[in-house]
Amino acid sequence: MTATPDGASLRTTPLTGSGAGPELLRSLSPMLTHWLPRQRWFAGKGRALDGLTLTAATELLPCPGTGSGTGRTPGLLHLLLTAHQGESADCYQLLLGVRDVLPPTLSPALIGRPASGPLAGRAVYDAVPDARLTAVLLERLRTPGRLGSLRFVREEGAVIPGQLPARPLRAEQSNSSLVYGDRLILKLFRRVSPGLNPDLELPLALARTGCARVPAPVAWIEAEADDPVTLAVLQPYLPGSSDGWRLALHALHRRADFTGAARTLGRATAEVHTALATALPTTELRGAPLASLAGDMTARLKAACDAVPQLRPYRAGLREAFAAVDDLAHSGRGCPVQRIHGDLHLGQVLRSADDTKGRWSLIDFEGEPAKRLSERRRPQPVLQDVAGMLRSFDYAACQRGATPFARRWAEANRDAFCVGYAEGSGTDPREHTALLRAYETDKAVYEVLYEAHHRPDWLPIPLAAVRRLAQTPRSPRRTLS
């Protein structure tokens, strides 16, 4: 059994029908060791890959060379592969196509040709761009059941049409998604952990409350384990919708008003939070756990200041934002916590094109992929989501330079979002000054660290927010209940 970062284990399953698991891994390891770190969804970039462990292997279609394939038709192999990097180990989901001859259109997906093993001499490639092979996933979900280590589950009463052409989405980073006939979308989680993924758990819970702001899961794929692993989720696709990021940039380009859209987005976010609080348990954060939250934020600030010198002039003012939360913890006040989106920003919301009211939907409830699954499933204050969206308005405004118009645009839409949220929930997030400022500060500190390492040209965007937040005085407004 293979240990994972969350401490659970996955059961190792040999290659279906051939018992060739260890030999398969030995033959694929050299090429996968080279290929994996170059994928956008690989989480361990910048660290040496020490080795690979085959956690599970299942033939979805017979693979040529394994004793069950004909050699003339493509095979489809599903792997769960654990990558070891120092003391860390992350499990990844791979879909590998196997062909004797790879068509030119699929040549960019080539991983390599093993020199030995059960697939010796065959072309092994990433199967996600291969519509012929990814159609198999939809067919498996139409007829639920088990195959090897995999379990295909369909929601009761769900109808999944057949013969829908598949195409991959190109824009994602941490996962891969397949659109079937502009009617359904299957998200394949690349980095997986034991336990129920929030991107299945929360939309299911919301659907069962009648909340229509989130596409309801139609079916999903799991891996057999001590704690089943969510591998993929099938949901309705929303053709013609535009994400909030593109809409905001378009409004900025035209110098157009966006506050009406921001206000209805705030109302939609509040509706989802209210439904989640109805569907799933809620509790309260106070005392030592609230102080620990402030301590964690302070620790992240210290680490970021050590790594990014440009942040250091502001650390005293930023620490004050976290100290205000610590003061609240020691005053005995508390804060409600519940399940939230966990990574809310303008790219995680869609606005319908065929609705004159411009209805908003929230998507991608996975949370921040870099965090452990257990952390992503932990109840949090709704202000974490609100702060994420407020920071997103700032990011959008700065795409065309930090001009006075951009600053006014951001402030107007931040305020409109909060007004809409208050209309939907009965509480204006701006009234909870200390905690909202702390979450926005923590997010801006994270952004500084990220941009310094990955997009240095973007560093001025979060630094502008850092300057503002470091100078924000404590407010007499009500903070926590």
Return the domain count. Answer: 3
CATH H-level superfamily title of the largest domain: Aminoglycoside phosphotransferase (APH), C-terminal lobe
What number is the mean pLDDT?
A: 90
- Assigned CATH class of the largest domain: Alpha Beta
Helix segment tally: 12
Main structural class: alpha+beta
**Strand-residue fraction?**
15-25%
The helical percent reads 25-40%
Q: Tell me the CATH architecture of the largest domain.
A: Alpha-Beta Complex
Q: Uncertain spans, ≥5 residues at pLDDT below 50? A: 1-5, 7-19, 66-71, 476-481
Q: Order of strands in the sheet with the most strands?
A: 8-9-14-15-12-11-10
The global form is globular
What profile does the largest beta sheet have? 7 strands, antiparallel
Per DSSP E runs of 2 or more residues, the count of β-strands stands at: 20
The separation of the N and C termini measures: 47 Å
CATH topology of the largest domain: Aminoglycoside 3'-phosphotransferase, Chain: A, domain 2
Verbal overview:
With 481 residues, the chain is an alpha+beta fold. The chain has twelve helices and 20 strands. The chain has helices spanning 21-35, 131-142, 198-207, 244-253, 259-279, 288-307, 315-331, 373-376, 383-397, 404-425, 433-454, 460-471, and strands at residues 2-3, 9-10, 51-61, 75-85, 88-99, 110-112, 123-126, 145-147, 150-154, 166-168, 175-180, 184-189, 191-192, 219-223, 229-236, 242-243, 283-286, 334-337, 349-351, 360-362. Strands 8-9-14-15-12-11-10 form a seven-stranded antiparallel β-sheet, with helices on one face. Strands 3, 4, 5, 6, 7 and 13 form a six-stranded antiparallel β-sheet that branches. Strands 16-19-20 form a three-stranded antiparallel β-sheet. Mean pLDDT is 90; it is low at 1-5, 7-19, 66-71 and 476-481.
